[in-house]
């Protein structure tokens, strides 16, 4: 009986992310290298100024700059990998659900399943509930999406009168919010509810009924995403 292969270690996973991201976005490799070199340079400069010519101090600060540079370079590549992963599913049905299935900040109530969906066009409305209130997120580009947003907003106001309702359109261009900027945009919305009110509003809206049924892709794993093929 064949032995199960060991899952790749942490450093191997990071290296895989680096190669995949660098292949799909060459500028990310240069940016990570620049961050690394700047961190080393800053470390050496601090060691030179504070060490008064002491070689040991200079080396110590240089190593500190190297370690810091590696850490920040990994953060840069991780952010780039996440953005590239989201861009690969941009415009597909269920892409917003995949984002909402990722790591959401504490205090937010959400689901990767839409609360409303057009069966023909597969355009959908998703919902997030947090300190800013109720955020309705549309997926699709036709004029029907605005009507779907308005209909869901009226349902929310009937069930939770007084709760702030924010409408966000996710688009593939700058006419709305790009999918890789979605969570950042939502988290910046002004707060209007307490934690207790978030729970109360969530419970009221959950009583509206089950989420709409639509095939939704699973959450995105940047370690497994493949670089997009280049057109010849």
What multimeric state do the chains show?
Answer: single chain
Q: pLDDT under 50 segments (min length 5)?
A: 210-232
Helix residue percentage: 40-55%
Shape: elongated
Strand residue percentage:
5-15%
Find the count of extended strands (DSSP E, 2+ residues): 5
Radius of gyration: 23 Å
Helix count, DSSP H or I runs of 4 or more residues: 7
Structural class: alpha+beta
SSE series: HHHHEEEEHEHH
Mean pLDDT: 79
Reported for the largest beta sheet, the result is: 5 strands, mixed
End-to-end Cα distance, whole Å, is 44 Å
The count of domains is 2
List its salient traits.
single chain; 232 residues; alpha+beta; 2 domains; five-stranded mixed β-sheet; 50% helix; 10% strand; elongated
Report on the structure:
- The protein is α+β, with helices and mostly antiparallel strands.
- The longest helix has 34 residues, at 55-88.
- It has seven helices and five strands.
- It is 50% helix and 10% strand.
- It has two domains: 10-88; 95-206, no CATH class.
- Strands 1, 2, 3, 4 and 5 form a five-stranded mixed sheet that branches.
- The two termini are 44 Å apart.
